[in-house]
Amino acid sequence: MAKVKEHLSSAEQFYALGTKEYEEGRLKGDLTHMREGCEKVFHAYVEAAAALIQKRGFPEPDSHGERWEILDKMGRRGMIEIGDSAFLYLHQYGYYGGKIRPEVETTMKEVKEAIEQVRKETARES
Asked: Burial, 66: exposed, middle or buried (Cβ in 10 Å; 0-12, 13-18, 19+)?
């Protein structure tokens, strides 16, 4: 089981790699790179959520549904909404469907905000 700081570090690395790959793909018209970037940013959200969940003493979730349920128990509606958007626009449409919808870039910004919020919360309580 990864530690809180490891999850947060992974989130930041996945985000940086994903946004770089997405942007390079967008500039070159390379859908494969854009899709891979979407998936990395989605995984950045997963890692940030895992850091927050573990910080609160809950077990690491094994599925998207479990993550949703734990965040709901924690009263984290904002994290759930970002996760729902990331799952739909980055993971489902972007990565698996190869459909880059207008919501992709907004969702990427929301994931960045979620990572920053988790970083602040976990740093305050260390």
From this structure: middle
Q: What is the CATH number of the domain that holds 83?
A: 1.20.120.330
In the numeric block, which tokens belong to residue 119? 């970083």
Contact, 58 vs 74, CB < 8 A? yes
Q: What residues contact 110, with CB distance under 8 A and at least 6 apart? A: 82, 85, 86
What are the pLDDT digits (tens) for 3-35?
999 999 999 999 999 999 999 999 999 999 999
How many structural domains comprise the chain? 1
pTM beyond 0.85: yes
Phi, psi of 62 (to 5 degrees): -100, -10
For 100, the domain range is 4-124
